[in-house]
Amino acid sequence: MLGGEYDTSGVVIVERRAVPQDLPVWAIEDSPEVRIGRVSGQGADVFGSIAAVAATSTGDIVVADLRPVGVLQFDRAGELRFRAARSGEGPGEFRSVASLMVTPGDSLIVLERAPPRAVLFDPQGAHIRTTPLSSDDAERHGAIAYRGILDNGTIVATRAVRSGSIINRDHRRFLNQLTYLDPVGATVLRGSSFFDPVLFSERVTIPQPNGPVSAVVMRTPPIAGRAVYAVRGAHVAVGVQGRGEILVHDTVGNVVRILRPPGWGILTDRDRYLRHAAASATSSSGATLGESPEVTASHLPDTLPGFERIMLDAVGRLWVEEYVPEYEIREASWWVFDSGGQFVARTQFPSGFVPHQIEANEVIGVTRDEADVPFVERRRIVRSSPP
User: Fold this and answer.
1) How far apart are alpha carbons 133 and 120 in whole angstroms?
2) Hey, which residues does 86 pair with through a beta bridge?
3) Under a CB-based contact definition with an 8 Å cutoff, are residues 238 and 178 in contact?
4) Would you say residue 285 has pLDDT above 80?
5) Higher local confidence (pLDDT), 255 or 288
6) C-alpha–C-alpha distance, residues 94 and 138, integer Å
7) Of the candidates 368, 359, 324, 331, which has an alpha carbon nearest to the alpha carbon of residue 347?
């Protein structure tokens, strides 16, 4: 059975647990139409660390680079049109980039996290204003993460909110609350809240100059489902990986559709994961993952997350990346659904290509060469008929 649809209290629930055998396969062209970047030199297209990539309504590509800090806009042929900003604290300057957004009128918004503020530029790259994004209840709300911008100019973000769920005396669970901000940063409304994975304590050994030190650290379960987000047009999609559900919200925070795509309910191969982790992975602190297998194994979920990333394209299609556990060496497939939750196609992106924005017939993303130099590319989507 491929699934079904039913309505409950005005919310359409769409079950798509199995994949049609005659589903069309789309291809992403191996050779990019446009490739922006160089290995070395002094030009604007020598990227250091790309923070974000977006596209305007005319097809221009906008790149936020962190080394050096700046926002650059290129035309469809990949030629530089202008550099919009640089590092600093003066008008039109910023220290870091948390997110880059293009407004419905092709103005640019650069969002910083600390301090939270929006730096707005017109379509020609001239600075318009810098607006602090703060509120009276900032003390009760944690870090802000910017998720996207709607067609009406509303900025969609999430704020970490401390819940009453206590892990131990020093740690509590946090949940991410959808927050809708107007173009000048004022909170319009707060929507649904979604839990991050529960943290757990683990004893690790941390290398130090005077010898290894044993310490207890708080960890997120390695493959626990979390919330992922996609914002485009008039919708906000929130994927709850642990439940295998994608909740589609409207512009005022109401859930209008719940999609349950294929991939949820696959059992976690704990032994295989732990063997892989112990053999090949180390944490950022230098502590070996898996060295406390009894703790790690006990906190691995019974089932794998239902999917990985989600994206909305320019015509309202929802793209869902299947979850591939670390111990499986293969490329992930993406499922494409129409605005009503019907299967449209499946596809795979070229190895190493990370999509940032999907249009009706093309995708813009970042790839890296053998020396880890980043390049921005535009690739065509090639559609096929059902087999």
Assistant:
1) 13
2) 70, 93
3) yes
4) no
5) 255
6) 21
7) 331
Q: Which amino acid appears at position 121 of this protein?
A: F
Average pLDDT of the segment spanning 214-224? 67
Residue predicted with more confidence, 279 or 57 = 57
Strand 27-28 relative to strand 34-36, pairing = unpaired
Sort 168 into a burial class: Cβ within 10 Å, 0-12 / 13-18 / 19+: exposed
**pLDDT tens across 134-149, in order?**
654 443 445 678 899 9
Q: What are the tokens at 35?
A: 């490739």
Tokens found for residue 154: 């509303």
In the numeric block, the tokens 């512009």 are attached to: 251
- What is the chain's length? 387
E strand or H helix at 294: helix 293-299
Q: In the 8-state DSSP scheme, what is residue 241?
A: G
CA-CA distance, 308 to 324, in Å (whole number)?
A: 8
Q: Does residue 200 register a pLDDT over 90?
A: no
Name the residue among 128, 114, 131, 110 with its Cα closest to residue 64.
Answer: 110
pTM of the model: 0.86
Q: Is the pLDDT of residue 74 over 60?
A: yes
pLDDT of 294 reads 45
DSSP code at position 186: -
Q: What are the phi and psi torsion angles at 140 (to 5°)? A: -90, -10
Residue 232's CB is within 10 A of a number of other CB atoms, namely 21
**Residue 366's pLDDT is what?**
96
| Helix H or strand E segment including 278 | helix 270-280
